[in-house]
Design a protein that fits this description.
The chain is built from 15 helices and 4 strands. It is an all-alpha fold and about 400 residues long.
């Protein structure tokens, strides 16, 4: 039976998740130079349009169509055929579920682009995002949520730790390594042109994340309430721990660091938010704040150019959450108890998603680069991608 209140709840949650894509664009935009901010915003907008249409045409069907050998959905829902007013999932219309999941599909490739900003062309980036969503995101979503082999194995991922953040984090890491460093990386400091933008983007993400996680319960329930509470507590804990770590390591807690800590906590609690207690959520957030901060330090020492620390924040954060969930899940919240067996299943899930995303992403980067050239020229990079890719300036000075 359709419960109208649940339908409304999930639709509102979908709107909140949609807000996260411009939120991540503003969060990222504050961390790039003023010569490249429009390019980044444009890439996020382009992804919002392209992936929404892809999801309508065939993406939803690949992810949530009837299972084919545990690997992919079939094309039963091509162009959303067969989704009517009488079709439902749980207590909501299937159409409501579809639009909610569309927003997840949209934000995932939008996370990836932060790893190689300031040095890539617009159209190759859009093509990569379309191919990646179709060949990587949709199958992984099916494995974990659509009746695929990980779901049958017992892997749990409440709102997208593996499907979204680890998946995108690995693709981002591979992209940063394949496409190479920005001009002058390691020889000069790269300035963050607008820290208030970063804070505004963090606020939009934090706000939208309540829909991201609580909405994944797909009903107004205690699990949804728990996910909401856990989301907030984990973000708060990670923010505080990151700030303390900076104070100990650098003598001053930075605003950028605390904002990054909050996002790390949000990424970490995503897979676990509907399964753990509030104490578990605080532990996960604190662990993510600590580990993600030191992951950024390690990235600097290794010297690869993941421009906006996508892997260090989203990848490491969600790996922390997925593994912690294996032990910290409590039955009274999500009906699952943690233990060694669940931990091992979570580990298998992480390894499988990371390997698949890493290998296929590398192939797609190489393919798009071979066909169209992914990077701008040295001269264009010096001018800035706002003017070379879009013919616009963010600021008229």
């Amino acid at each position: 039976m359709i419960v109208k209140a649940d339908d409304v709840f999930v639709l509102i949650s979908a709107a909140l998740v949609m807000l996260m894509t411009p939120g991540v664009a503003i969060f990222y935009g504050g961390m790039v130079s003023s010569r490249n901010v429009l390019s980044l915003l444009g890439q996020s907008l382009g992804i919002l349009g392209i992936i929404s249409l892809q999801w309508f045409v065939f993406g939803y069907s690949l992810a949530f169509g009837p299972d084919v050998d545990g690997i992919i959905g079939n094309l039963k829902y091509l162009f959303l055929s067969g989704i009517s007013g009488s079709s439902q999932i749980g207590s909501i219309h299937q159409a409501t579920f579809m639009i909610f999941q569309m927003m997840f599909a949209v934000i995932t490739p939008a996370l990836i682009i932060g790893a190689f900003v300031e040095r890539v062309k617009f159209f190759p980036t859009m093509l990569f995002s379309l191919l990646w969503s179709s060949i990587v995101y949709d199958p992984v979503a099916h494995w974990v949520w659509g009746g695929g082999w990980i779901q049958k194995l017992g892997g749990i991922d409440f709102a997208g730790g593996a499907v979204i953040h680890i998946n995108a984090g690995i693709a981002a890491l591979v992209g940063a390594l394949y496409l190479g460093k920005r001009e002058g990386f390691g020889k000069r400091a790269f300035s963050f042109h607008n820290i208030p933008f970063v804070v505004l983007g963090t606020a939009m993400l934090w706000f939208g994340w309540f829909g991201f996680n609580a909405g994944s319960a797909l009903a107004i329930s205690f699990q949804a309430i728990s996910a909401f509470i856990n989301t907030h507590l984990a973000a708060a804990a990670a923010l505080v721990v990151w700030g303390v770590a900076e104070y100990i390591g650098r003598g001053k807690p930075t605003v950028l660091g605390m904002a990054s800590g909050a996002v790390a906590g949000l990424a970490a609690i995503t897979p676990a938010s509907g399964y753990v207690s509030p104490i578990g959520a605080i532990f996960i957030g604190a662990a993510a704040g600590f580990l993600c901060y030191y992951a950024t330090i390690l990235r600097n020492k290794i010297g690869y150019d993941d421009s906006l620390d996508v892997f260090s924040v989203h990848g490491i954060g969600s790996i922390t959450g997925m593994l912690s969930l294996g032990f910290l899940a409590v039955k009274y919240v999500g009906g699952v108890s943690g233990g060694v067996h669940q931990f091992l299943i979570q580990l298998i899930t992480i390894v499988a998603v990371a390997l698949y995303s890493g290998i296929i992403s590398l192939i797609l980067y190489a393919l798009v680069d071979k066909l169209f050239g992914f990077r701008v020229t040295h001269e264009q990079e010096k001018q800035g991608t706002d003017i070379t890719e879009h013919g616009e300036h963010a600021y008229d000075m």
